[in-house]
Design goal:
Elements lengths: L1 H10 L4 H46 L5 H12 L7 E9 L2 E13 L9 E11 L8
Antiparallel strand pairs: 1-2, 2-3
Helix pairs in contact: 2-3
């Protein structure tokens, strides 16, 4: 009698699937949330770079814009990303052409626990030629 009870306990597989599922589920969820977080970081980076390029594009479309107006447009374009955004506007000469260079940086911190200690700096840059209209008169 005793031997058959031991044999039944030893060969029983009731509940093994639920135990294995309990071991496998947390790493799968962790991997899934890490992938979501990395995907969201790429979305934020792309949106940030697009905002800076759009600010440079408006400078190109309206070439009579002053440097103060350019700064205001760049700050307005990236203001939705938070207060930690730093912006800079410089002029650069390539050959005989002078360009406005609009650049911005912002820190991005991941959310998921294994990645939450990582902070990356996102950069965005846009260029627009400085156009000086000369009226012959």
């Amino acid at each position: 009698m005793r031997r058959s009870l031991w044999r039944r306990v030893r060969t029983a597989e009731d509940g093994v699937t639920s135990i294995e599922f309990a071991f496998v589920l947390p790493p799968i969820f962790l991997l899934m949330f890490c992938l979501f977080d990395i995907g969201y970081a790429h979305f934020v980076r792309n949106s940030f770079e697009t905002a800076v390029r759009d600010a440079a594009r408006t400078v190109f479309i309206e070439p009579t814009t002053t440097e103060a107006e350019i700064h205001a447009r760049l700050d307005a374009a990236v203001s939705s990303f938070g207060e930690a955004v730093t912006t800079e506007i410089t002029q650069e000469e390539i050959g005989t052409t002078t360009y406005w260079v609009l650049s911005a940086q912002m820190p991005y911190r991941y959310v998921v626990p294994p990645l939450s200690s990582l902070t990356v700096t996102l950069h965005g840059e846009g260029r627009a030629p400085v156009i000086n209209y000369q009226v012959d008169g």
